[in-house]
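Archive maintenance. Older records in this collection stored only the sequence; we are now back-filling the structure field for every entry so that each record is complete. The fields below show one back-filled record exactly as it appears after the update. Entries are processed alphabetically, and Sugar ABC transporter permease is next in the queue.

ARCHIVE ENTRY
Title: Sugar ABC transporter permease
Organism field: Pseudoroseicyclus tamaricis
Length field: 281
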Amino acid sequence: MARLVLVPTILLCLIGYYGSIAWTTGLSFTSSSILPRSEFVGLEQYARLWSEPRWHVAFRNMFVFGGLYIAFCLAFGILLAIAMDQGVRGRTLLQTVFLYPIALSFIVTGLAWQWFLNPTTGLQEFVQGLGFENFRFDWLSRPDRAVYTLVVAGVWHSAGLVMAIVFAGLGSVDGEIWRASRVDGVPKWRMYLRVVLPMLSPVLLVCVVLLAMDVVKSYELVVAMTGGGPGYSTDLPAKFVVDHYFSRANIGLASAAATVMLITILVILLFSGLAGRRRAA
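Back-filled structure field:
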């Protein structure tokens, strides 16, 4: 009976999820444009994809944005979790403040930061209104720096998630370890750095995987905050795929880009699994 109950869920997953993946991968080997076509063209769409300057920018931005996003989320999240663990004053209030952004969608986050960093209505205009007329913070309108504004907004949104996960992990650390460190006179910062955080490496690995998945499928933040601009300087692969599916009506090329994203996710999962096994060994 238990197996029969699971049959509809299994079928839905196989058809709706894995079936869609197989269909999209199959379309990437066809000449589909406005409508799906069955004409097989081999790797032609992938060759077109990697000859697109916009795709190169989007793929490079994924690593620039992703590396900084993951690094700063981990750094701020761990520091906040340690502060919570040490019983900082107003801990409940701080937990609420830092967890609040997680309740917002990336659309809301992007719109809020787009307004805040807008050179004509946000931070720059406010500081100049205070009398500092030479102050400039116009990264949102600069093609060489706009992608870093996505990092700022993303870290503000997701650092609280890392804090919550790491704080839960810190709560599971055996109290005997801390008592032993006090007897030996080991500073707390050294205990966190050399003992506690290495013990929580599986927890940190989970955080890295979750953040990396956010990077690969990032779309809402880019659309709400920069629209991919100036030009296409802040494009990410997910926006490239959606634009070519719906705006440019190039299903074959979009399917090839989506398949490359899938391969990227599989590589992330493979490396995380190998790291977990190495840690267990």
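Update note: The two ends are 38 Å apart (CA to CA). The chain has one domain: 2-280.
Entry marked complete.
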